[in-house]
């Protein structure tokens, strides 16, 4: 739940960021189309609901691009984050066809989720080493994490690892954003806390573990419930902090 304050951008500096944004938008659109085609082919049928979920996440990332872009170039860290978004989009295939989470293909899906999670720990240090760390990259990284968590939750639900309530584990952050439209004080900036990063890692790690073929109820549901309780506790602390200062 990172936030930043927007500042006016000099008109002279608009050309390069807008060119980079156009390139990034075209690349993202191409990746989305290619990955949707692959998901459709793997599933053997068209399942458009997962595409709508991914489109919603892409729209949030696009809003992030428009509002928070400051750097004159994309940079390796943001390129890696974009790559993680492409890997996360591969979860559309098992979301469309849950049989892909069984047997050998299930282990492939599980390993893909672990690789995507592991790469999340690389783009931050890479951005700091290249001198391009900033609020835009942090926001982009957070939105990709949110989309990834939601897609993992959908796959966990569709595979039978947990009930439909597991969607809360992947979509609670989006409910918080929607609540901010009703109660604007929820959209106020929050101080940096290591707690949020830790809970986010636990959340996505548990969701990724639910994709393993050996993750079956009731143990898979127990793990998801514990992670959901931890996530609700973290959000509750932030809501109470914001309520006390509204």
Name a few traits of the molecule:
single chain, 246 residues, mainly alpha, globular, disordered N terminus
- Report the structural category: mainly alpha
SS strand fraction: under 5%
Biggest sheet, in brief? none
Helix and strand pattern: HHHHHHHHHH
SS elements, strand count: 0
Number of helices: 10
Cα separation of the termini: 17 Å
State the oligomer. Answer: single chain
> Helix coverage percent of residues?
over 70%
Shape, per Cα inertia axes: globular
The radius of gyration computed from the alpha-carbon positions, rounded to a whole number of angstroms, is 18 Å
**Averaging pLDDT over every residue, what do you get?**
76
Report low-confidence residues grouped into runs of 5 or more. Answer: 1-19
Architecture overview:
- With 246 residues, the protein is mainly alpha-helical.
- Helix content is 72%, strand content 0%.
- It is built from ten helices and no strands.
- Helix 7 packs parallel to helix 9.
- The longest helix is centred in the N-terminal third of the chain and has 29 residues, at 15-43.
- The radius of gyration is 18 Å and the shape is globular.
- Mean pLDDT is 76; it is low at 1-19.
SSE layout and pairing:
Layout: H1 15-43, H2 48-68, H3 75-89, H4 92-96, H5 103-119, H6 123-129, H7 135-159, H8 167-182, H9 194-209, H10 219-244
Helix pairs in contact: 1-2, 2-7, 3-5, 3-6, 3-7, 5-9, 7-8, 7-9, 8-10, 9-10
What's the quick description here?
The chain is mostly helical. Helix content is 72%, strand content 0%.
């Amino acid at each position: 739940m990172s936030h930043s304050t927007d500042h006016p951008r000099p008109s002279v500096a608009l050309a390069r960021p807008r060119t980079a944004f156009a390139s990034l938008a075209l690349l993202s659109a191409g990746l989305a189309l290619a990955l949707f085609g692959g998901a459709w082919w793997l599933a053997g049928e068209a399942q458009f609901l997962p595409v709508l979920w991914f489109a919603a996440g892409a729209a949030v990332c696009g809003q992030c691009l428009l509002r928070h872009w400051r750097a004159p170039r994309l940079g390796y860290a943001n390129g890696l984050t974009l790559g993680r978004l492409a890997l996360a989009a591969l979860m559309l295939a098992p979301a469309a066809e849950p049989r892909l989470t069984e047997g050998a293909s299930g282990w492939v899906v599980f390993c893909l989720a672990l690789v995507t999670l592991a790469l999340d720990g690389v783009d931050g240090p890479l951005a700091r080493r290249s001198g391009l760390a900033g609020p835009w990259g942090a926001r982009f990284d957070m939105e990709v994490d949110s989309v990834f968590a939601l897609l993992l939750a959908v796959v966990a639900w569709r595979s039978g690892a947990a009930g439909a309530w597991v969607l809360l584990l992947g979509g609670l952050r989006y409910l918080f954003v929607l609540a901010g439209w009703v109660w604007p004080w929820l959209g106020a900036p929050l101080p940096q806390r290591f707690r949020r990063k830790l809970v986010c890692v636990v959340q996505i790690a548990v969701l990724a573990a639910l994709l393993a073929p050996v993750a079956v109820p009731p143990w898979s549901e127990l793990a998801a419930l514990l992670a959901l309780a931890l996530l609700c506790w973290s959000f509750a602390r932030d809501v109470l902090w914001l309520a006390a200062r509204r």
